[in-house]
Amino acid sequence: MIALEHTRARLRKKILHLAWPAILEMVLHMMVGIVDTAMVGRLGAEELAAVGLGSRILFSIIFTFAALGTGAAALVARAIGAKDPEGANRIAAQGIILSLLAGGMVALGGYFLANHIFTLVRVEAEVAIMGREYLRITMLASVFTLPLFIANAVLRGAGNTRAPLMVALIANGVNIVGDYLLIFGIAGFPALGVAGAAVATALSQVLGCLLALGILLRGRVDLHLEPHCFCHWDGETMKRILRLSIPAVVEESVLTVSSLIFIFMVTSLGTVAFAAHQVANSVESLSFMPGHGFALATATIVGQKLGGQSPAEAKEGGLMGTLMALLAMGTMGVFFLFFPRQLVYLFAPGEAQVIALGATAIRIGAFEQPCIAATMVLAGALRGAGETRYPLFVTLLGNWLVRMPLTYLVVYVWRLSLGAVWVVTVLDWLFRGSLLYCYYRQGKWLTVKA
């Protein structure tokens, strides 16, 4: 019993050490989004719509391909746990090579298909013109954005979450300053408007990529890559990365498509209800930051413990990370339950109907916080072990057997309110969390070949 408590205390300390930089990194990204919106919003509604739509399309594509880092991070974590730095370096280098190839394809495809993408969206002509310009500029930077995501993923897999935080701090700072100078034309810079926001975003991604690669090349972490590592194609390692990453890429694609369909159904409830839903989502996203941080930390712990041939500690690490996320997000849920109007008011002051509907949604959302925590962290633990297929299976079931059918019934058949839609999301997260917990406790994933 004493040995178990000692192990748990050690795991708690390690998880916290890994989680807090990842949480702060999420805070930084959220703050940049808020600042970007505030700056572009001063130009007008059309400019705001163009940047909002363009960035939504951009990051939907980027996040899908960034899931390639899942396999690389899991394999790096195992190699570090097995005291195999050479193997970790080889995997990291192949992951970066893969991201450069994917980034090049996304950059070219996005640039030339931007016109066609915006013909599929029913927006005003001026919004479409500015949106295409934003998307073309930012898509060209994908050749740097994807390597940035993958480099950060392998750094986390090696147990270093502070380096990605520092990279985000510098790159996001450049993005904010660049927005201010290039959107409004300050200090002699041209006033580029929406194009200025795109250029600032692209420059920040280029800088972030160079910084992350510089950290890997300097070798002040467990990973130390040499320039010649990027000139060697290791087909076997690449296959291992793809075998683990492809389910994560498919899962991200499913999430993107289902999210768009879900939003489309919610818009059928009316403008006020949709606005309230968007505001409630913004409030609830505050709770995702600790969940995301603990998921990344737990994935690293699980991967390294399995690499070090310590399956019992790997399993305990996943449960410990889940418990810590439950406490953090459960606390957020208490605030959602008792102070929903105050929280919604921060995002929509003066909109009485939006505040009332949004507060109802947030109060219901309080009950899904423990389920979201369990889903995020347990899925992260499984991915860290190299088990990327089961989280995909759970995402498919949750979206297409629970969320989509029930939302369709609520909106189009029973014609209920926004609150009923949020009850559906509670049921969806409960379903997913339960499936993941049962599978995790069985322990079959401990023997998955990575």
- Structural class label: mainly alpha
Secondary structure tally, helices: 16
3D shape: globular
Quote the beta fraction.
Answer: under 5%
Q: Helical percent range? A: over 70%
Radius of gyration: 22 Å
Strand count, sense and barrel status of the largest sheet are: none
List the helices and strands in order: HHHHHHHHHHHHHHHH
Find the count of extended strands (DSSP E, 2+ residues).
0
Number of domains: 2
N- to C-terminal distance: 32 Å
Whole-number mean pLDDT = 91
Task: Identify low-pLDDT runs.
Answer: none
How would you describe this protein?
The protein contains 16 helices and no strands. The protein has 450 residues and is mainly alpha-helical. It has two domains: 225 residues, no CATH class; 183 residues, no CATH class. It is globular and about 55 Å long. The relative contact order is 0.12. The model has no long low-confidence stretch (mean pLDDT 91).
